[in-house]
């Protein structure tokens, strides 16, 4: 869930809305009705997603002490910077200033110029990375369903070799079709389906982990420091995998991109920034509790051998139908989530192209096509070619780099510092007219620099992981 989805879904004009001026907010839009309850629900929905699947592996790399500590540290930083961002929804005054409807609008309003362009670049890199990551994750889940049935039928010791590529192609075909639907972002049921699916597979994974711990299955090896040097990994592998695990946790907490859109659904009294801070606290606390349970109980279940994706790594074999259902939930969630993340990319490129080549019929002309049982469908040749090309490119990249943990870690590393830390801190400093080198200014800058260093080392860990995996990976071959 991201960008303008919330604002587009919330403002549905009805005849009753025009009967009375009281039905409008101070910006002329239909009166917002959101509360801390709905905002908390939006935050939980936005945060909990496929990132939860890698948390048991991340905890395994760092152990019982550092693993939960890093989870709590990221949750605190995410909450703290979200409170700063909440004060920037209105500018220049956080209570009575002009509303900003999206994250990028806030950056443009307060920081302007080059930083606005850098924000856009960071957002679009993140969105492209997520769509590639979702292609990988969805295909892994579909493969897991096929392998689960094979294991159930032939026994757990069968190889059940299956290639990811046919499932990536299937996922891409589905996305090509969905990408042609005009105004796909207005399908409000998409968020509901995504929320139900993400909670379903996360809860199933948590439940299976609890069951495995309760029955003593496997007697997993765990330790205070995680995977052991000389037993599980070499010294250098321990360092690199720890860095990568930090990136995986950062990915799991990525939601700053949509905070402003969520805040834009809140009613104006009491003040939106105060309500949003309360909602952020409740949302992050709930999410952190869920993450800590999934990560720690998953680690307790699998120990230092925790798979990168605890639903597709076959730490569980039975009940096979429940594992199949969980993986189907992941695939269904990501079919919709892919569209949510790629729509802003489509919109940006298409708007820019229409301005650049306004005289070109190929770019601007709409053509009506009658489809039996579906009515008239409006199509545009440029939109069809561009969106199809984008989906194909992301699918090919996913086939070349089908590494779940490495890719999630890289996306988390690249997006965490700029979008979750740097811009919220810089906007808060400028809007509050904070004195340079004051105590608050100094420690905010220190926090930003520390987070930048953490992002750099976690990105390095993920890149190193990709490089190592590529050495032994043969593209387009079936994997075990």
TrEMBL record:
Subcellular location: Cell membrane; Endomembrane system
Main location: membrane
Classification via InterPro entries: AA_transpt_TM
Bilayer topology annotation: Multi-pass membrane protein
One example GO MF annotation: symporter activity
Entry annotated with the keyword tRNA processing: no
GO cellular component: endomembrane system; plasma membrane
Residue ranges annotated for the Amino acid transporter transmembrane domain, each copy included: 32-466
Transmembrane segments: 36-57, 64-86, 124-145, 166-183, 189-211, 279-300, 320-341, 384-401, 407-425, 446-467
Pfam families cross-referenced by the UniProt entry: Aa_trans (PF01490)
Keywords, alphabetical: Amino-acid transport, Auxin signaling pathway, Cell membrane, Membrane, Symport, Transmembrane, Transmembrane helix, Transport
Gene Ontology biological process terms in this record: amino acid transport; auxin-activated signaling pathway
Function: Carrier protein involved in proton-driven auxin influx. Mediates the formation of auxin gradient from developing leaves (site of auxin biosynthesis) to tips by contributing to the loading of auxin in vascular tissues and facilitating acropetal (base to tip) auxin transport within inner tissues of the root apex, and basipetal (tip to base) auxin transport within outer tissues of the root apex. May be involved in lateral roots and nodules formation.
Similarity comment text for this entry: Belongs to the amino acid/polyamine transporter 2 family. Amino acid/auxin permease (AAAP) (TC 2.A.18.2) subfamily. Belongs to the amino acid/polyamine transporter 2 family. Amino acid/auxin permease (AAAP) (TC 2.A.18.1) subfamily.
PANTHER family for this protein: OS05G0424000 PROTEIN-RELATED (PTHR48017)
Name of the featured protein: Amino acid transporter transmembrane domain-containing protein
Organism: Crotalaria pallida
